[in-house]
Amino acid sequence: MSMAEHGDLPAFNTDREEFVKLTRRMVEVMVDFCLLTLRTVSKRKQTSLNSDEIDKIIDFDLSFRIQQIQDPEIIDIVRERATSKFKDMQNEFY
Q: CA 40 to CA 29: how far, in whole Å?
């Protein structure tokens, strides 16, 4: 069964909607991190940033966040919290 065929099932549509919603949240969090870094650099520099500086800072920040997400300690925290929350959810279902 192809992914397009899955899209016809209500459960998959709901899951897709939630996936899209969570992806938007993730993008907004990444934007917030970039804005924080841009504000911090701009304040320290005490001047406006030009387009090239903005692009370089955003690229640096995104690379840093991707590395941060791959940190084994962060992965362990996410794994533990996701496992705990899912077990709580399962207890509500069964």
A: 17
**Range of the structural domain that residue 53 is part of:** 3-93
> Which residue's entry shows tokens 């969570």?
22
Q: Phi, psi (5° rounding) for residue 73?
A: -65, -40
Give the integer Cα–Cα distance in Å for 8 and 1: 11
**pTM of the predicted model as reported, rounded to 2 decimal places:** 0.75
Q: How many domains is the chain partitioned into structurally?
A: 1
pLDDT digit string (tens) for 58-90? 999 999 999 999 999 999 999 999 999 999 988
For residues 43 and 74, give the distance between their C-alpha atoms in angstroms, rounded to a whole number: 29
Q: Which residue has the tokens 């991190």?
A: 33
